[in-house]
Amino acid sequence: MAAAVDYLKQVAAQIPQVSVEPIPPQLTPQPDRPFVVTLRIGFDNTGATDIAKSLRKKIGVQGGQPGQIAGGRVSLYVIGQGALGAAMTEQIAGDIKKAEKWNIPVILIVLIAAFGSLAAASLPLLLGVCTVALSVAIVLALSNITTISVFALPTVTMIGLAVAVDYSLFILMRYREELNSGKNRQEAIAGAMATSGLTVTFSGLTVIAALAGIYLIGTPALASMASGAIIVVAIAVLTSTTLMPALLAIFGKAAANQSRFLRVSPLRKHSIPFWRKWTQQVMRRPWLSALGASIFLLALAAPSLQMHVSNSMLRQFDSSHEIRRA
After folding, report:
1. Of 125, 225, 226, 231, which residue is least crowded by CB atoms under 10 Å?
2. CATH of the domain at 166
3. Which helix H or strand E contains 54, and what residues bound it?
4. What are the residue boundaries of the SSD domain, all occurrences included (predicted)?
């Protein structure tokens, strides 16, 4: 055990701005008993997380398992708020990779079923991937100059792909409708951007304004999530109104045609009767419809009045995970 303590001191000495607190003489390492080596750092909480990441790597903590020395007889852990943040970042990265294995194929299948064309289905997906990649890069850059919660990254990937695909669908569907009305490709792109493109812009601004209200709560973690969501929605609007027209100009002909082999659902020239009737009913009594929708939404939001906010980060780890065992 004493050798393990000396090893930890050597590891800590390799990291700048980290010093080992003196161990009182009466506290000596004992076999088969936990022993804590206290470190003092010269950084804020963000620095603590970075140091914890470095320490975890140096002592061999990975995959939810502690580091080990002395032939596995001594287990090494890193504990503290910084270590908790480092472990959560590692787990989130793994969860995102697992989710991406399913999200993209499922979205592609749904888009193919909707458009009946691999080319048309690929455009929204490509836009979504570009949006998420750019947004993640911005969030990571911001994390170097300010404190960003570990939950900001999954917020970006979760919302970004959905919003970007959704916005691009508005434009792509309108583009197809413009072509079906007899316009050429350039006119169809211009018409789609003048209508659906404008809708996407105002929709994005509305979402951003709504997300900005989260800052009023005053919780740092929620503020970071709101920042991530605002960034990715803004990027989704930007890519939908700039990248999407360029992609349509290049691949618009292929996106407009249905594949003979992937023709799952034909493109309807007219609105679905149910939604047309529903819209007519809403427009006939707008104030009554708005009142009914408001009552329904307020009823759904009522439980939030009894919401208790707490830090439950530790409970998100499995009981066998090294951070919980530590």
Report:
1. 125
2. 1.20.1640.10
3. helix 45-59
4. 118-250
Helix (H) or strand (E) holding 41: strand 39-41
The reported pTM is 0.71
- Number of helices (H), then strands (E), belonging to the chain: the values are 11, 4
Which residue has 């708005």 as its token pair? 290
Shared-domain flag, residues 189 and 56: no
CA 135 to chain centroid: 9
> Residue holding tokens 């819209």?
279
Two tokens at 323? 């951070």
Q: Which residue has the higher pLDDT, 10 or 270?
A: 10
Residue 129: inside a domain, yes or no? yes
At 87, the amino acid letter reads A
Look up the domain containing 41 and give its range: 2-79
Residue 296 lies in a domain: no
Partner residues linked to 75 by β-bridges: 68
Please identify which residue in the block is written with the tokens 């605002």.
230
Asked if 294 and 300 touch (Cβ cutoff 8 Å), the reply is no
Query: Are 159 and 234 within 8 A, CB to CB?
Result: no
- Domain assignment present for residue 211? The answer is yes
